[in-house]
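Sample entry was shown:
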Amino acid sequence: MSRRPIAVLTGPTGTGKTDAALALAREFPLEIVSVDSAQVYRGLDIGSAKPAREIRDQVPHHLIDLVEPSASYSAGQFVRDATQAIEAIEARGRVPLLVGGTMLYLRALTGGIAELPEGDTVIRARLDAEAEVHGWPALHARLVAIDPAAAARIHPNDAQRIQRALEVHAATGERISALQLRTAAPLAREFRMVALMPDDRARLHAALEQRFTQMMAAGLLDEVRGLFARGDLTDTHPAIRAVGYRQLWAHLAGAYSLETGVTRAVAATRQLAKRQMTWLRAMPNIRVVDPYDAQSFVGVRESLIGAFCQL
C-alpha cells in the first residue's frame, strides 16, 4: 500500500490559511502541524495569529507553544518535531496537514537541511557582548573575511544570521556556507502543496493593515508589554525579532512613538509577505490559489484531497 502524500497549505501572511485549514478539518480527519516560527513561542499569541484555545481543542494542533520566548528554535528542531508529529498523527489513523508561512521551515522539511551544530550559549554570549561594543556591521565585516559567500547573503544589520554564521565557524572551524551545501536527506515522502497567493497586491496590503489594527485592538501592545516586563528578554532574542513584536518592543524601549511603531510594523508585515511570495515562486510543484477568488476554497480542496483520501 502506497503512503499518502503529505498535505501542505502555505502562502504569505494574512491570506486565510488558518480558516481554510479549519474548513478542511470539518470534512476530513485532520490534525494541523503549524509551520510558523512565531507560534512555537509561548506568550506570542496575538501577534502570531495563534489559533484560539477553543479552536485547538476542536482540531488538534501541533508545534505550538513549544518553547519559552527566551529560547531559540531552529529549522533543524522544526524538521525533527514536525517529522515526529507527522508520524504520530498517522499512527493514530489520522491525516497531517502542514499549515503556515515560515518558508525556511518548509524548505528544510521538503528539501533537506544542512547538518549544523546546535547553538552554543557561551559563543553567542561572547558575540552579543562584542556586538554591544562594536555593532553588528563590524561583526559582519569579520564574517566577510571568514566566509564571504555567507556574508554576501546576509545584511550587515541582520544580527541573528550574522551571529549564527560566526557561531558555527567558532564551533566547527568550518564556514556555514560550506556546511549548508551538504544537506541531510529530507523526509522521504511526497508533498502535495498549495499556496494561497493573491494577484491583487493592493488588496493584500490593505488586508494586512486592517489585520494589524485588529491585533492592536485585541491587546497586542499589552502582550508585548508583558514580554518587555519579564526582564529576561531583549531585542536580540528570535521571538522578539518577530514582525510586529520587534517594532512595538522598540516603541516600549523609547526608540519612537507608538504611531511610528505601528506604521513600521505594518510595513514590515508587507515586506514579510513579499519575501514569502518570492520564496514560493521558486518552489517546484506547488499549486497556487488566489485567496480572493470566490472559488478559492474549492481550489485548495481539490489540490489537497489526494493527500486526504488516497489509499
Notes: Strands lie at 6-10, 30-34, 61-62, 95-99, 113-114, 183-184, 191-196, 286-289. The radius of gyration is 20 Å. Residues 121-181 form a domain with the Histone, subunit A fold (CATH 1.10.20.140). The first helix runs from residue 17 to 25.
